[in-house]
Design goal:
Layout (H helix, E strand, L loop, with lengths): L1 H6 L4 H11 L1 H4 L9 H25 L5 E10 L2 E9 L1 H24 L6 H20 L3 H19 L6 H30 L6 H10 L4 H18 L7 H5 L5 H21 L1 H4 L3 H23 L4 H21 L3 H29 L15 H12 L8 H10 L4 H25 L16 H22 L13 H19 L12 H11 L4 H46 L7 H23 L1
Antiparallel strand pairs: 1-2
Helix pairs in contact: 2-4, 2-6, 4-5, 4-6, 5-6, 5-12, 5-16, 5-20, 6-7, 6-12, 7-8, 7-12, 8-10, 10-12, 10-14, 12-15, 12-16, 14-15, 14-19, 15-16, 15-19, 16-17, 16-18, 16-20, 17-20, 18-20, 19-21
Length: 608
């Protein structure tokens, strides 16, 4: 039985896809009398089956030898396209994380989306989400992983634009889709280049090929940069980071997955491509530079936000920046564990944010305050999620950093301490504005959320608290004595210092903008994401606009001009020739004779 469950683990992504298909009668309006609830229940049932199957496979496969399953689905001449699945502790843990967080988010959505008229459509998209994420976790095929990443891009577009009646939502969905497409096009070029250079289509074959291939440094660099472009867009890294901020216009249950595991999917593929990237120093340096800029920049942006979801989304980009640095330092194992610990804690934070938004009907943290007494489960969720994210003993991120300190350069230690300090400051600021202080107009009547939202939050609290146990079960385990190192003391000190500074920081709920021009510019510079949108408008968008105007002018006056010239010439010659069609043979002979004389004259002149 155990071996059968392990051998059929590749069916787990199909559960989510079947759940999405099962919602079609309700989402298409074919069934209306029952309401949309049955569609939600069917999808949750499919996710529950995937969760049970995934957990059982993790328990069985964690102690067994990694193995690969290959399915040949197209064999023509020398072309052999396969669906390769890898069963290893890493892939099974990633799959279990996907199924667990998806199930919890879908149950959470029962309460959050209770009154939404298109509940069935939402659950269908969530099932599509789950299928793509589960496939990426198991896939050992680069082509198949690319296809699944494209599925994620499509589902992101549909979920961000779920409430399409709002113009801002439509703009956010469009921008998120187009921003990801930029990286996807370059990533596809890298995939095609790998295939043409003789690498196999599976990550295992690509790793073996990268160890022995002999290419020029320039070609290695171009190949590495192309493969980096896709994860840069998927993980919301600089300069393709703005889409995640705009994607917060979508429903909160989708934001739970987007900020915990969806953005991690691109980084997961990047980790598997590390053997290829390691052959190019330029590609590794690019990863480190992009990760550093994003980690510091988005941590500062988060501090200036007043939208609770946006301040958390910038934090997501910051931690994914640390993952990019891990890959750039050729430490993929640390990068994977950082993805796992961050995803669990960030999911809990977004669940607490969803409960706050539902009870207050607002996302502006300056309009909140004093709700910790009325929302004990929500407050506990926020506190545990924040502690699990800022590197305090004994929660998850703390142990990942402990493992990283063993091989971390000195300058990376300073970067990690800075990012940890900024995020601790930001989360303390949100805690003070939302939960502490006196109740505001929108928080005077804020009852705790109903059980469909409270139970998933309690479950995520337990999972977050158990994350260190899972990390200590990883091979090789984290050494308990490593907490005595000086770096760990500095880590705890940066967390405590960030909480103290955030607690002592002067906060005003109204009139937050300073009257001093320099200080106001600094506030706006951070709040508006370093004015990156304006930079894009003045550069990329403007260049595209000028190019479009140039091509329109060429099409109108050059291409159309030549076509019109041919047409006018044909009409004019036809008008002239119609006078020769009189029916008189003498006139025909005269015309032929004149043509022969003119042709002979031109021929003789050309001969001379």
């Amino acid at each position: 039985m155990n071996q059968w469950l392990l051998a059929t683990v590749w069916l787990i992504p199909a559960y989510g896809l079947l759940g999405a298909i099962a919602t079609l009668p309700w989402s298409l309006g074919l069934i209306q009398r029952t309401g949309s609830r049955p569609a939600a229940y069917l999808n949750i049932l499919a996710s529950f089956l995937a969760f049970v199957h995934g957990v059982w496979a993790l328990i069985v496969g964690n102690s067994s030898v990694p193995q690969e399953l290959t399915f040949h689905w197209l064999q023509v001449a020398d072309l052999d396209l396969t669906l390769a699945v890898t069963l290893s502790p890493k892939s099974l843990l990633a799959l279990t994380t996907v199924t667990t967080l998806t199930l919890i988010a879908q149950v959470f959505a029962l309460g959050y989306m209770e009154k939404d008229w298109s509940l069935a459509r939402f659950y269908g998209l969530m099932g599509f989400f789950e299928a793509a994420l589960g496939g990426i976790a198991l896939s050992d095929s680069l082509i198949f992983s690319y296809m699944l990443l494209e599925m994620l891009t499509l589902s992101t577009y549909l979920l961000v634009g779920f409430w399409y009646a709002q113009p801002l939502v439509v703009t956010a969905a469009r921008d998120a889709f187009l921003t990801k497409r930029i990286g996807d096009v370059l990533f596809l070029m890298g995939v095609v280049a790998l295939s043409s250079l003789g690498a196999g289509l599976t990550f295992t074959e690509i790793s073996d090929w990268a160890a022995t291939a002999t290419l020029s440094p320039t070609l290695w660099a171009l190949l590495g940069l192309a493969l980096i472009a896709g994860p840069t867009g998927k993980c919301a890294q600089f300069p393709l980071h703005l889409w995640l901020d705009e994607a917060m216009e979508g429903p909160n249950p989708a934001s739970i997955l987007r900020n915990s595991i969806v953005v991690s999917a691109g980084a997961y593929v990047l980790i598997q491509l590390e053997p290829v990237l390691a052959r190019s120093p330029l590609a590794l340096d690019t990863l480190i530079i992009l990760g550093t800029i994003t980690a510091i920049g988005t941590s500062l942006m988060a501090i200036a936000q007043i939208d609770i979801k946006r301040t958390f989304s910038h934090s997501t980009s910051a931690y994914l920046g640390l993952v990019f640095i891990c890959v750039g330092l050729k430490q993929p194992e640390i990068a994977f564990l950082l993805l796992f610990a961050h995803g669990v804690a960030k999911a809990l934070l977004f669940m607490s944010a969803g409960a706050i938004i539902l009870t207050t009907s607002s996302q502006d943290i300056t309009e909140m305050g004093g709700i910790w007494r009325r929302l004990p489960v929500t407050t506990t969720s926020f506190v545990i999620g924040a502690l699990g994210l800022i590197g305090l003993f004994p929660l998850g991120i703390f142990w990942v950093f402990c493992r990283w300190f063993l091989t971390m350069p000195v300058w990376v230690l300073g970067l990690v301490l800075t990012v940890n300090f900024l995020n601790a400051l930001n989360l303390t600021r949100v805690l003070r504005l939302v939960f502490l202080g006196s109740p505001q107009l929108k928080t005077r009547r804020t009852p705790e959320v109903a059980w469909p939202m409270a139970v998933p939050m309690v479950a995520m609290i337990v999972i977050t608290l158990l994350t260190p146990v899972l990390l200590h079960g990883w091979e090789p385990p984290v050494v308990w004595g490593s907490w005595q190192r000086g770096e760990v003391v500095l880590l705890i000190g940066s967390s405590v210092l960030g909480c103290v500074v955030g607690g002592r920081l002067g906060l005003q709920r109204r009139g937050l903008r300073s009257t001093q021009p320099l200080w106001r510019f600094g506030q706006d510079f951070l709040a508006y994401d370093f004015y990156m949108e304006q930079v894009y408008q003045a550069t990329v968008v403007q260049w595209v606009r000028y190019l479009a105007q140039l091509t329109a002018w060429l099409d109108r006056y050059v291409v159309d001009g030549l076509v019109n010239l041919v047409g006018v010439s044909t009409i004019f010659s036809g008008q002239l020739l119609k006078y020769s069609a009189s029916g008189k043979s003498q006139l025909y002979l005269l015309t032929i004779l004149m043509g022969i004389l003119i042709a002979g004259f031109l021929f003789l002149n050309g001969w001379k």
